[in-house]
Amino acid sequence: MTRETGTPALHDDLMARVFHRVNLWQAWKRVKRNRGAPGIDGIRVEDWPAHAREHWEEIRRQLEAGSYRPQPVRRVMIPKKSGGERPLGIPTVTDRVIQQAIAQVLTPIFDPGFSASSHGFRPGRSAHGALEQIRGHLKAGYRIAVDLDLAKFFDNVQHDILMARVARKVRDKRLLALIGRYLRAGVLNGEDLQASDIGTPQGGLLSPLLANILLDDLDRELESRGHRFVRYADDVMILVKSRRAGERVMASVSRYLTKKLKLKVNEQKSRVIPAVQTTYLGYTFRGTKLRWSEESFADFKHRVKELTGRSWGVSMEYRFHKLGQYLRGWMGYFGKSEYYRVIPEIDQWIRRRIRMCYWKQWRRPRTKIRNLLAMGVGKRQAILTGISSKSYWHLSKTKATQMAMSNDWLKSQGLISVRGLWMKAQGYA
Question: Which of 3, 230, 298, 331 has a Cα-to-Cα distance from 109 of 20 to 30 A?
């Protein structure tokens, strides 16, 4: 079965649609909502409206004349969870607005023709959809994963290969030229301006759509071969029924990527293994059940430790606010995990850390004793606990501190329950 290859609006004046007043306003609202750091011109998101009032007419004139030149992106290095760093390119706010305006026009043209197995950076699709599709393949007996790793994908995209695929559905030469200029805008790394003859910068608002346009050829190839697969941006997993079949698929697909799309496959990280041994989008699989990965859980514990660190000099109200934000966000994504056993333990651990924070804030023995007494702890127990020289962590688990700072009391102060969030995510509440 082939996908629809129709190309709506091939001969429209797409530049006019990109810079239509309504489209630009929507693009600005999106950029404003996402905020982000300033580009090389130093103009912040909140300062951009004033800048635009003064300069936009000239920018628009240049865009219409085809003489506009995007500014280079500002390079920053972001720590990777697996170690090392990855480069992130930060465009100016003006270029973010223009890129977003282009993406809003091109997405309805390209996205309807994309594969049902493509889930990353697409309207109405998500990582959860990709995970559910994998589960469906596992249930159908496809238990061997061909885990393909594209080496520095965004850095290795060949501009001519990419632009040829954009031009399949875009005939507006001014728009094609503008997209090409964004690809070649360059990178400012400190004081060093580097040319960008290859690659598309991570951080550019056009980059996710351009990645999907390029890798749609891979999707079509896999579909034509009848493969079961899932792709989220450049993260590709193909599922087969045997290791021998997996080895054949790995070899043939690697050749296709190298020869046809001129992409590099990381042979050290690409592998053919049972699906239960893979990690995909932060999850692992136990049979057909989802479970967050050990790495994801380690990251979670590290962040919670930061938010409940006793040396973080903030009010408990603010601490609860930031912790609640993080827990809701994390469980909103990882709440699909069907592994319950550790959930009550997480709640117990967080409550103990919060009791430790309160104990540190109370500081003096007299304050500790007074608070314990006021919270219903017996006099002798309050005094012995209050004057103890044992560690904050040790004392956070004593009978006195648990009685005073009961689970219900902590809830009344603003501490939310991970178990409650998980139950809600599972549809039980």
Answer: 230
